[in-house]
Amino acid sequence: MAASRKVPLRKCVVTKEMKPKQQLIRVVRNKEGEVFVDPTGKKNGRGAYVSKDTKVIETAHDQDVLSRQLNTKVDDSIYEELKEIAGD
User: Fold this and answer.
1) How far is 37 from 8, CA to CA, in rounded Å?
2) Is 33 domain-assigned?
3) CA-CA 20 to 30 A from 9: which of 35, 40, 46, 47?
4) What is the pLDDT of residues 7-53, one digit of tens each?
5) Domain count, the chain
6) Which contiguous run of DSSP H or E holds residue 86?
7) Which residues cross the membrane (predicted)?
8) Alpha-carbon distance 83 to 56, whole Å?
9) Which residue, among 76, 33, 29, has the nearest Cα to 57 in the 3D structure?
């Protein structure tokens, strides 16, 4: 019997719960200080994960969670893009 592959878990920066990577969206700040949504989850830089849930994304926006996590100002357009991906 083949060993089932371990599912990579990541913590949502808003809800603080551990979830499989597929249920989260990664936001990255690279060395140049640019912040962008990383749907592949493979780009270089400081990453923060947010649940694919519009309510959670709105909470992140209201509390400016991503700006704190990534130590930089996160633009409103990033939150809009996250909401589109979550597609609630």
Assistant:
1) 19
2) yes
3) 35
4) 889 999 999 999 999 999 999 999 999 999 999 999 999 999 999 99
5) 1
6) helix 76-86
7) none
8) 10
9) 76
- Residue 5's identity, in one-letter code, is R
Q: Rounded to two decimals, what is the model's pTM?
A: 0.89
**String of b and e for 41-79 (b: at least 16 CB within 10 Å)?**
eeeebebbbbbbbeebbbebbeeebbbebbeeebeeebb
Lookup: tokens for 72: 């930089």
Amino acid code (one letter) for 25: I
**Residues 56-82: pLDDT tens digits?**
999 999 999 999 999 999 999 999 999
User: How are beta strands 24-29 and 9-11 bridged, if at all?
Assistant: unpaired
The amino acid occupying position 42 is K
Give the total residue count for the chain. Answer: 88
8 A C-beta contact, residue 34 and residue 51: no
CATH number for the domain including 21? Answer: 3.30.1230.10
